[in-house]
């Protein structure tokens, strides 16, 4: 059974609590998704390290219940007031 949008979002936010997650169905089959994830936790990490955090959130279901996940990561702008 494919992984639902809500389950993908739940797993990413559980692993990266400050994450803003946008999911886009790529094939309409609940099996191919694009995840656009923004988190301050990504600051200072390479793109590979950022993507690895997202894939680790899915865990062993990557490639099984979730066949394909294209990941786009972003670092939110720094608040100039430090808040």
Key descriptive features of the protein:
83 residues, GMP Synthetase, Chain A, domain 3, three-stranded mixed sheet, 2 helices, 24% strand
Chain-wise SSE layout:
Layout: H1 5-15, E1 20-25, E2 32-38, H2 47-58, E3 68-74
Parallel strand pairs: 2-3
Antiparallel strand pairs: 1-2
Helix pairs in contact: 1-2
Label the structural class.
alpha+beta
Strand line-up of the largest beta sheet: 1-2-3
Percent range for β-strand residues = 15-25%
Q: Which residues form runs of ≥5 with pLDDT under 50?
A: none
In percent, how helical is the residue content?
A: 25-40%
Count of spatially separate domains? 1
Number of helices: 2
Kindly report the oligomeric state of this protein: single chain
The biggest beta sheet is recorded as:
3 strands, mixed
Gyration radius, in Å: 13 Å
Number of DSSP-assigned strands: 3
Task: Kindly provide the name of the CATH class.
Answer: Alpha Beta
Q: Can you offer a commentary on this structure?
A:
The chain is of the alpha+beta class. The chain has one domain: GMP Synthetase, Chain A, domain 3, CATH 3.30.300. It is 28% helix and 24% strand. The chain has helices spanning 5-15, 47-58; strands at residues 20-25, 32-38, 68-74. The protein has a 3-stranded mixed β-sheet with strand order 1-2-3. Helix 2 (47-58) links the parallel strand 2 and strand 3. The mean pLDDT is 93.
């Amino acid at each position: 059974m494919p992984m639902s949008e809500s389950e993908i979002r739940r797993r990413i936010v559980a692993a990266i609590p400050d994450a803003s997650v946008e999911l886009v169905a790529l094939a309409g089959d609940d099996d191919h998704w694009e995840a656009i994830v923004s988190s301050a936790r990504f600051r200072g990490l390479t793109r590979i390290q950022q993507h690895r955090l997202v894939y680790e959130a899915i865990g062993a279901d990557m490639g099984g219940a979730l066949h394909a996940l294209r990941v786009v990561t972003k670092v939110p702008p720094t608040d100039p007031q430090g808040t």
